[in-house]
Write a structure and sequence with these properties.
Number of strands: 5
Number of helices: 2
Strand content: 15-25%
Number of domains: 1
Shape: elongated
Largest sheet: 3 strands, parallel
Structural class: alpha/beta
Order of helices and strands: HEHEEEE
């Protein structure tokens, strides 16, 4: 039995609830390793291209072993046009294989145009 002379503090019940919520968020598998890849140029392939951003997003989901990861691809403000981009047709570098879920977020149709080369 505790005597009055001992300094005993009782833990508030809300403390355990907060710890449980933080623990569950930390262990949540969805989007726990999601990244953002930036398209820095309008090139068909290579560093900074849309193709490379898609390949990096595909590899990121596979590397983390988490198919729930949904990466995001954005466009640098300097990129205003991407030509001969196509998911189905084979150009010099071939089609871009999107094998994982990915969010592609552009600046809008007035700021960026993507031309698939159709006539």
């Amino acid at each position: 039995m505790w005597s009055k002379s001992q300094n005993h503090k009782q833990t508030h019940p809300l403390y355990f609830l907060i710890l449980a919520v933080l623990f569950s968020i930390a262990l949540s598998p969805v989007n726990s390793f999601a990244d953002t890849f930036v398209v820095a140029n309008g090139d068909e392939s290579g560093a900074g291209s849309l193709r490379q951003a898609v390949l990096d997003a595909n590899a990121n989901a596979n590397a983390n072993g988490n198919p729930g990861v949904v990466d995001t691809i954005t466009f640098d403000a300097a990129v205003t046009r991407i030509e001969q981009f196509d998911l189905d047709k084979s150009f010099d570098a071939g089609p871009i294989p999107i094998t994982q879920s990915v969010n592609i977020s552009g600046p809008g149709r007035r700021a960026l145009s993507i031309d698939g080369g159709y006539s």
